[in-house]
Amino acid sequence: MKQYFSELYTGGKSLVEGLGVTMKALFQPIVTVQYPREEIDITPNYRGHIDLVLDPEKNTYLCISCGMCEKSCPSDCIKVNGEKMEGEKKKSLVLFELDFTKCSLCGTCVEVCPKDALEYSQEYNLAAFTKEAFHFDILKRLEERRI
Ligand code: SF4
Ligand code: SF4
Fold first, then answer.
1. Which residues line ligand 1 (CB under 6 A)?
2. Is the full-model pTM beyond 0.90?
């Protein structure tokens, strides 16, 4: 009989404590959102895959096709190519591809770029069924952002 009341007391105490936690949480500010219907602003320091910086004044890339990022990437996931067009003194960027399946987001490419032509994207909800979907045409992405 004594044990019965002891267990009843322990169970009741636990129930009251549990309800206390629930009630406390009920009146706390909501910190989650109904993803994917709602999205929160991502922190500016977030590192998504790399992107070419768009020069807002010239409405084009800052990249000079030097290939430093390609050479310094420890995962060999960047392919850059520039060509000299007829009548032009400087090379034009004709290819900038990233194999994001191999990228470790180490940031070396961003750091070595002599023109600060690379930045991290804010992409955080990437999902796909194939590896090929993570082979990004970074130059094409920049073209789409051009005004
Ligand atoms: S290091 Fe910078 S300038 Fe050179 S190819 Fe890469 S992005 Fe372009
Ligand atoms: S962040 Fe690192 S691993 Fe990813 S592309 Fe740049 S250098 Fe390569």
1. 63-69, 80, 113, 115, 117-118
2. no
Report d(CA 2, CA 14) in Å as an integer. Answer: 18
List alpha helices for the chain, DSSP H: 2-26, 68-72, 108-112, 138-145
85-118 pLDDT per residue, tens? 998 888 999 999 999 999 999 999 999 999 999 9
121 lines ligand 2 (CB under 6 A): no
Q: Would you state the structure tokens that stand for residue 43, as one six-digit string?
A: 């922190």
Going by CA atoms, what residue is nearest to atom 2 of ligand 1?
A: 113
By the 8 A CB rule, do 45 and 110 touch?
A: no
* CB-based contacts of 57, cutoff 8 Å, min separation 6: none
The reported pLDDT for the residue numbered 56 is 86
**Residue 63 contacts residue 139 (beta carbons within 8 Å):** no
